[in-house]
Amino acid sequence: MGGAATSAVGKLKRVTQNQVIARFRDELGYRYIGDWSDRDNSNIETAVLAQRYQALEVAGFLECHPSNVSRALQNRGSKL
Q1: What does the DSSP assignment read for 13-42?
Q2: Is the model's pTM score more than 0.85?
Q3: 27 in helix, strand or coil?
Q4: Mind listing the pLDDT tens digit for each residue in 47-75?
Q5: Looking at the structure, do residues 33 and 47 belong to the same domain, yes or no?
Q6: Burial letters for 24-38: b for 16+ Cβ neighbours within 10 Å, e otherwise?
Q7: What is the count of structural domains for the chain?
């Protein structure tokens, strides 16, 4: 597979992805945070996780350290 075929498939995939994004955003109320295709392809955003962890800890919901949570998620994610 190469050249034009890949490009055509890539364009169709992007159209489908845009439709899914629109549905999540418009119908389900999710916030779209952008196209991250040029970013490091990690499933876990440790900075975002740390921010969320802090908020939950202050509210009294968490008792574990965020680095442990991040490590556990990364280990689990690598096994999927």
Answers
A1: HHHHHHHHHHIIIIIT-PPP----TTS---
A2: no
A3: helix
A4: 777 777 777 777 776 666 666 666 766 67
A5: no
A6: eeeeeeeeeeeeeee
A7: 2
